[in-house]
Amino acid sequence: MTRLLIAIDGPAGAGKGTLARRLADYYHLPHLDTGLTYRAVAHMLIARGWPLGDAPHAIEAAKLVDLSALDRSVLSAHAVGEAASKVAVIPEVRKILVDKQRAFAAQPGGAVLDGRDIGTVVCPDASVKLYVTASAEVRARRRLAEIEAKDGSGDFATILADIERRDERDMGRADSPLKPAADAHLLDTSEMDIEAAFRAARAIVDDALAKRDTA
Fold this sequence. Notes:
Elements: E1 4-9, H1 16-26, E2 31-33, H2 35-48, H3 55-64, H4 72-75, H5 78-87, H6 91-105, E3 110-115, H7 118-122, E4 128-133, H8 136-149, H9 156-172, E5 185-188, H10 194-214
Parallel strand pairs: 1-3, 1-4, 2-3, 4-5
Helix pairs in contact: 1-10, 2-3, 2-5, 3-6, 8-9
């Protein structure tokens, strides 16, 4: 079986998670949202009443993360996401989780992983690397629509400020900052719906596979 490893990176709300799930389903590959691993650490700290910035507790929580037991419905809460971005700046936590993520990526047939540092750190030798982005305003509108779809309420300005703050934190951290890999294909979804983004991504993957098969 030809091994296919797809690495997808990008900022919060760009659509990389939905795109990763669609690609994994299409190419019959296992999928890992690596952001959930950091959310799992944050959720564990919150549940146990441990401070988010306390490295020893965060390291202990990271060691306990089970990739087969990540519950998206629990971990997708906005507060958990905010907390996860703070936990993710702890180098020892990143090292533990990256090792787990690499083990997932090493499956014989390949995999699809999405996150912030897949193409640059976790899987630098991935078959295909995508960097999915969109303007902060578009991402804030998408986040607000998600909240309202769940019968919640949100404030656009507050959500936009949260996204911009998170971008700054993710891009500015010393260890594994968010940035496109040098050989990543850039995919700006600001003007795309998920179907258009999926078609564009699939074309990139298929082209890479065709070139590999004829190499």
